[in-house]
Amino acid sequence: MMLKKGKYPWYSPENVIPEQSRGVFHSLGNLKALPHFPTNIMEMQQLLASDDVAPKAIATQLRADPVMAAQVLQIAENIRNTRNPANPKIKSLEHAVVYIGFKQLSELIMSAALKTFKVPPSGFDVETFWNESYLIGSIAEYIVQRLQLKLPAEEIFIAGSLSNIGKLVSAFCFPPIATKLVREVSDPTVLSTWRKAESTFSFPDHSILGEIAALLWGFPTTIADAVRHHHDVPDPAKKPRCHTG
Question: Membrane-spanning regions, if any (predicted)?
Fold first, then answer.
């Protein structure tokens, strides 16, 4: 998880960032405006990472945060309704924790927490961003199911949903630039893409910004890889890497 620079003399944020992305990290002032996750989210992540923690203990911790608890229940019910609609409805937190699974729950809580961060005023529409992100996640999950790939559906959904978080980083840390990017891609006389707009304003690619943020925030490397490479064109001569957890 991200620690404030200088809190510990042995810690440096760039330690978790791949060498090819460190230049961007340093050139942008170490992304000082990137928000930190609240203490309760960090505590929940530590608990979920424990080897001997029981679902009941997770549920007890969730009850301390009614908003998070309600989100977990809703997420579990949405998953059940989509994949196993004939099964009984999920009504307890403990059942929801077991149904979702610790690893996916950890990622889902982190993803949900991102939506609670206050974004500075700019031309960037946060609600539109998340609506489009969830659509991307659903498409990614559908493709995996359609191709019958042996990959965790929920992990694929999260990876797809977070693939564009680099755009969110721009809105968090560089509101004036985010406004320029939005205007550029919204101008019908320009017909630009977000990446072309970034190039126009000599701004780093959002896939790099997203990878840096994903690693600093403590997301798994599978998520960071998806964020970094979501614009890459696959080489048909190479066998794709499959992350199964």
Answer: none
How far apart, in Å, are the Cα atoms of 204 and each of 138, 169, 199?
A: 27, 11, 7
DSSP 61: H
Query: What's the pLDDT at 119?
Result: 92
pLDDT beneath 70: ranges in the chain = 1-15, 29-30, 236-245
Instruction: Check: CB of residue 164 under 8 Å from CB of residue 126.
Output: no
Backbone phi and psi for residue 118, each to the nearest 5 degrees, phi listed first: -80, 125
199-210 pLDDT per residue, tens? 999 999 999 999
- Residue 14's pLDDT is 63
Of the candidates 40, 42, 28, the one whose C-alpha atom is nearest the C-alpha of residue 217 is 42
Report the candidate in 142, 137, 159 with the shortest Cα–Cα distance to residue 243: 159
**Domains, the chain, ordered by start:** 36-116 (no CATH), 120-245 (1.10.3210.10)
pTM recorded for the entire structure: 0.78
Closest-CA residue to 117 (of 51, 197, 185, 171)? 171
Residue 201: phi and psi, rounded to 5, are -95, 15
Q: Which two tokens stand for residue 150?
A: 């042996």
3-state helix vs strand vs coil in the chain, percent to 5 = 60, 0, 40
- In total, the chain counts a number of residues equal to 245
Q: The tokens of 187 are what? A: 């101008």
